[in-house]
Amino acid sequence: MYWGKIIGTLAGLATLKPWFALLGLILGHQVDRFLVAQFRSFEQHSSSVGRLPDEYVKPLFQTMGHIAKIDGRVSEEEIRAARAVMHRLGLGPAKVRNAINWFDDGKHAAFPLTQTIRQLRRVAARRAELRILFVRLLLEVVLAKDRLHQKERAAIWTVCTELDIGRVDLAQLEAMIRAQKGFRHSPAGDADSRRIKQAYRTLGIDDSASNDQIKKAYRRAMNKSHPDKIASSNPDDAVVAEAHKRTREIRGAYEMLKARRSIR
Questions:
Q1: CATH fold for the domain made of 189-261
Q2: What is the CA radius of gyration of the chain?
Q3: Would you say the C-alpha torsion 179, 181, 183, 185 has a positive or negative sign?
């Protein structure tokens, strides 16, 4: 994240005074640090979804499929984003298959969008935070591609209207998701992504693993590497130190994924 530094420096240079350029750079750096913290907080909060009932998940993926298809085709970016949501919700293999089928159901032209959202609100989204979450997850999928079609935007507004979400709230959600997308492609975002990928590698799994698979991989890795497991062989100090180091790496990797995936 470096746009704050660039804009601050350019604004300072416009004054033709070097000290103002330096001041702009410093202030811009502080803005960048603040934005990075905000994006990480938003990402962590959005990942803290937890378990949701089928009465919520079914209309979620049906509506995703409907809005993704409404412009004529579902893009590869939207499919990848929908699968990422499945993993964040901690869906097991059987529920992933259900979610895919629900996504396909929503792609039909006759899908009753308004009735589906009204039923969702009555049954599973009475609380405001659940309604905001619903729209946020929809936006994460439809904004995965570069351009938002007018029909998609109209359908999203229909959802927001039925869920009592105003234009200001919608605009804020869209802005944060777009900024989050930009952050992921920034140097800081790249570094963050590398740390997450390394955490998966440390546990010997990939990012397609379910939350339960992550837990099992953590327990397996700890059971294999813990210093207590090698105590009976009278290891030397170097071997014990390496075992402690490996245990810290495994625990750190799990704690990182636990926070990102809302694992309980």
A1: Helix Hairpins (1.10.287)
A2: 23
A3: negative
